[in-house]
Amino acid sequence: MSIILDHVNYVYGEDTALAVHALKDINLVIPDGQFIGLIGHTGSGKSTLVQHLNGLIRPTSGAIYYNGEDIHEKDYDRKQLRSKVGLVFQYPEHQLFEIDVFKDVCFGPKNLGLPQKEIELRAYAALKQVGLEDEYFYQSPFDLSGGQKRRVAIAGVLAMKPEVLVLDEPTAGLDPKGRDEILDQIAKLKEETGITVILVSHSMEDVAKYVERIIVMNRGSVLYDDTPREVFKHVEELEQVGLAAPQVTYIMRALSKRGMPVDTSATTIAEASQEILKALHRTV
Amino acid sequence: MIRDITLGQYYQADSVIHRLDPRVKLVATIGFIISLFVVDSWVGYVVAALFLVCMIKLSKVPFRYMVKGMRAIVFILLITVVFNLFLTPGEPLVSVWKLTITKEGMRTAVMMAVRLSFLIVGSSLMTLTTTPNSLTDGMEKLMKPLKYVKVPVHEIAMMMSIALRFIPILLEETDKIMKAQIARGADFESGNLIKKAKAMVPLLVPLFISAFRRANDLAMAMEARCYRGGEHRTKMKPLCYHGADRIAYGVLLVYFAGCVAIRIML
Amino acid sequence: MGIIKTDKLTFEYIRRDEEGNVEGITRAVDEVDLDVKQGDFIAILGHNGSGKSTLAKHINAILYPTEGTVWVDGMNTQDEAHLWDIRQEAGMVFQNPDNQIIGQVVEEDVGFGPENMGVPTKEIWERVEESLKAVGMYEFRKHSPNKLSGGQKQRVSIAGVIAMHPKCIILDEPTAMLDPNGRKEVIRAVRALNDVEGITVVLITHYMEEIIHADQVFVMDRGHIAMEGTPREIFSRVDELKELRLDVPQVTLLAHELREKGVNLPEGILTIEEFVEALNGCQSF
Q1: By CA distance, what is A140's nearest residue in C?
Q2: Is there a contact between A259 and A61 (Cβ–Cβ < 8 Å)?
Q3: Closest among B46, B108, B47 to B83, alpha carbons compared
Q4: pLDDT single digits (tens) C65-109
C-alpha cells in the first residue's frame, strides 16, 4: 500500500510560448501511515504535485502508481482512486454548497454510490473526527465561523474514508487559535486512524511540530526529503530558496556561535530549552 | 483547462492603429460596417477590401492571428451561404433533386459571405488593437450625450471595466472549485442533459457566493478610496485627440464618401 | 487630541433568523477608547471575531458607532460633511489582495483614488509615480495585477492608498492571505511608510512577529481591549497571551520557559540577539 511517483514531469501549457516546466523528474515513495510535510514557497510546484496524487492532473511524462497499479492505465477507476486519496484544497470552505452542514459532508460518499444508511454513518463519523459539535450539523455551512467551515470541508473529504489524506495549506488565513485547532485535530486523526497524511505548507514552524518526514520543493524539483532534524540543518540553502527554518534553529545556531555547547539541530522549543539547560549545568 | 480561454484578445504591438484614440477606432468600426451595407457592387467591395487590408497592414497584427479568430465563425458563415444559395428565388442555374441554385442566390450568397467576413475582420481589428480599458473609456466619452437623457453612462463603463478585471479571477476560481468537487467524486461529464445540469449545482453555488463576496469587498474598497460615482472625478488618462486622430477621421470620411459615390454612380 | 481618537466606541449589530425576526444583539466592539498620536505605529492584535476589523472600519467611516464617538484628525466620523475628507485622510488596506484592486493595469489602479478626489491629471501621474516608488513597485507599473504575487498585489494596494496622501493608513490583516515572503515584503513597505514618510500606521494582524516594531500594541478580545502597552510590555505577559490563544515568537516563549526553570532571564525578550546577550550575561560559557 503506497504511492510511487516515477520520473514525473509536468509542463503547463505545452506547445505554447508560455510553457512552464512545473514539475521536473519527481521520484517519491509515500509508504502507508507516514505523516509528511510538503514544503515550498509559492510557485515551487507543491500544489501541482499533490494534484497528481489523485489523478486530477495527468503527468506530461512519467507514471504514478497507487498500490502497485498505474493510475493512468486505460481502465483504472480514477473515481475510486479519488476516494482513496482524499485531497483538501486551499481554502476548502469555498467549495461548500449544500443547505446544511450534514448534507454537504454527504456529497462525497453519495458520489461513491453508497447506500443512504452508510452515507449518513460516514458523514456523522467524519464530522465527529474533525471535532464539530452536533448542534452545528443542521445549520447552513455559511453561518459558521472560518475555522468551523474549514473543518466541515475537511470532513467532506474524510467521509469518503480515504487511505491517504492530502491537505493543501489547511491553515491559510486562519488565526493562531484556528490554526492550532486544525493542526491538533489532524494530528489526533492521524494517531487514531493511522492514515497517511500529507501536509502542504510554507510554514516550517507549523510543520516541524507534527511531521516525521519533510519534503522540500524548489522550482519543481525535490530539494530535500528527510526527517525535520536533518532538513533544518540546511538553513542557508533553505533561505536561498525563500524558506526559513523555525526560529528555534536560529537561536541555537546563534548560541553555538557564541561558544555555548548546544546541539544546533533542536527544532522545537521543548528540545531547545532542554539543550540550553544541559549546557548551562555543564558550565556550572 | 478552462483557464486557457482568452477573452478580449488584445494583441500587443506598437503601431499607428494601436496609438489611435479609442473613439476614432469605435467610430471607424461603425462607419466601416455601415459602408459594407452601403456598397452593393463588386467595385465597392474591392474598395472596402483595400481599405481593410491597408488597416491590417498598418496595425502590425499578423494576418494568421486574424484568421485564427475567423475559425470560430466559419460555421455561421457556411449556414448563411447555404441558405442564400438555395433559398433565393430567381433564374435557375443548377437543379439537383428539389434544390435549385439560382443566379441571384449565387450572387447574394457570395456577397453575404464577403460582407460577413469583412465585418468580423473589421471589428476584431478594433478589439485586437485596443485594450479593453481604453475601449470602455472611449465608449464612455462617446456616449456622454446620453447622460442628458438619464442614461448612467459612467456607471455602465465602470461596470464593464470591473467585469473585465474579474473575468480571469473568476475563471481561475471556477477551475479550482471544479477540481475540488471532482476530488469529492463529482462527475461533470457523464450522464444526460438533466443529470449534467444537476451536477453543475455544486459548482455554481460556491461560484455565486464567491462572486457576491468579492463584489461586496470591492464595493467597500472603492468607497474607502473615495469613489462616489462620476461626479467630481478627474481622469488619469484623459482622452484627447491628436494629429493622427484627425487624419484618421479624414481618411475615414474620404473612404465613406467614396463608398457612397460608388453606390450612387454604379 | 491625536490623529485618531475614539471615546467609548461601541458597535452592535442585530442578528436575525431566516424570517427576519430578531434573535439577539451582538456587541462587536465594546466601549473602546483609543488615542493615536500623529506619526505613531499602532498594532491591534486579536483572533478572528475579537472585533478588531469592525473597529478598523469605524476609522474609515465605513461603519458608524452605535454608541460613542470616533474622531479622525478632529473630525467626527458621523458628520457627513467631512465624510470624503475622512476617507482621504484615513486610507484603508484590506485583507484579500484580489478584491481591492480595481484597475486592470497597476498604475491605473494606483490612480483610482486621486481620480475620485478630483486631482488634476498631471498631479495624478506624479502621485502614482511617487507612491509606486515608495513601495518598490514602480517597475511593475505597466503590468496587469493578475500576474503579480500576493505580496506585490498588497503593495500595489498600499500605493493606491498613499497616492491619496493620507495622514494615516489602516491595514486590516494585510498579510493574512500571504506566504512568509509576501508577509515580509508588505511589513517592510509599511514600516518604511511610517519611518520615512511619517504616516501614522494602524496595523491589524494576528501575527505576533509583525508587531515587534510598533510603538503601541492593543490586544483585543471579545470586543474590548484586553491588553495595552509597548511590544515589550505585551510580550512579557506570556501566560495571558497564551490564554488569549495568541502566538508568541518562539524566542520569547523559549526565554519564558527557561525563566520558569530558574534561569535568570528578563521578561519580554523580542529578538534572538537580545536572547543571546541575556543568556550570555547570566552565565559565562
Answers
A1: C18
A2: no
A3: B108
A4: 999 999 999 999 999 899 999 999 999 999 999 999 988 889 999
Instruction: Sort strands C67-72 and C75-76 into parallel, antiparallel or unpaired.
Output: antiparallel
Say if residues C14 and C25 touch (Cβ distance below 8 Å): yes
Indicate the DSSP class of residue A92.
G
A283: amino acid identity, one letter: T
List the grid coordinates of B210.
464567491
CA-nearest of C41, C76, C73 to C212 is C41
Determine, for residues B218 and C102 on separate chains, whether the beta-carbon distance falls below 8 Å: yes
Q: How far is C89 from chain A (nearest CA, A)?
A: 29
Residue with cell 468579492: B214
Residues of C in contact with B220 (CB under 8 A): 62, 94
Q: Identify the sign of the CA torsion A50, A53, A55, A59.
A: positive
Bridge partner residues of C99 (DSSP): none
CA distance A151 to chain C (A): 16
**ipTM of the modeled complex:** 0.87
Decide if C14 contacts C27 (C-beta within 8 A): no
Q: Give the pLDDT band of residue B5 (cuts 50, 70, 90).
A: very low
Smallest Cβ–Cβ distance between C285 and the set A248, A277, A279 belongs to A279
H or E stretch covering C132 = helix C121-134
SS3 content of chain C, % helix, strand, coil (to 5): 40, 25, 35
**Phi and psi, residue C14, nearest 5°:** -95, 125
Structural domain boundaries in chain C = 4-230
* B198 close to A (CB below 8 A): no
Those residues whose C-beta lies under 8 Å from the C-beta of residue C274, and which sit 6 or more positions away, are: C251
Q: Are C168 and C199 in contact (CB under 8 A)?
A: yes
Taking CB atoms and an 8 Å cutoff, what residues of chain C touch B225? 87, 91, 102, 112-113, 116, 160-161, 164
Q: Which CATH architecture has domain C4-230?
A: 3-Layer(aba) Sandwich (3.40)
> Which grid coordinates are listed for A265?
539541530
Report pTM: 0.85
Cell of B169: 479571477
Contact present, A23 and A48 (Cβ < 8 Å): yes
Instruction: Kindly report, residue by residue over C115-132, the tens digit of the pLDDT.
Output: 999 999 999 999 999 999
- Please choose, from the candidates C278, C207, C253, C236, the residue with its C-alpha nearest in 3D space to the C-alpha of residue A254: C278
- DSSP at C74: T
Q: Are A233 and A246 in contact (CB under 8 A)?
A: no
Dihedral angle computed from the Cα positions of residues A205, A208, A214 and A216, in that order, rounded to the nearest 10 degrees: 10
Closest CA to B12 of B142, B95, B132: B132
Q: Which residues lie below 8 Å from residue A16, measured CB to CB, with a gap of 6+?
A: none
Dist. CA B76–CA B81, nearest whole Å: 9
Chains touching B (at least 3 CB pairs under 8 A) are: A, C
H/E element, C252: helix C250-260
Q: Are B183 and A94 a contacting pair at CB < 8 A?
A: no
Q: Which residues of B touch C120 (CB under 8 A)?
A: 234
3-class SS shares of chain A: helix, strand, coil, % to 5 = 45, 20, 35
Q: How far apart are CA C267 and CA C253, in angstroms?
A: 10
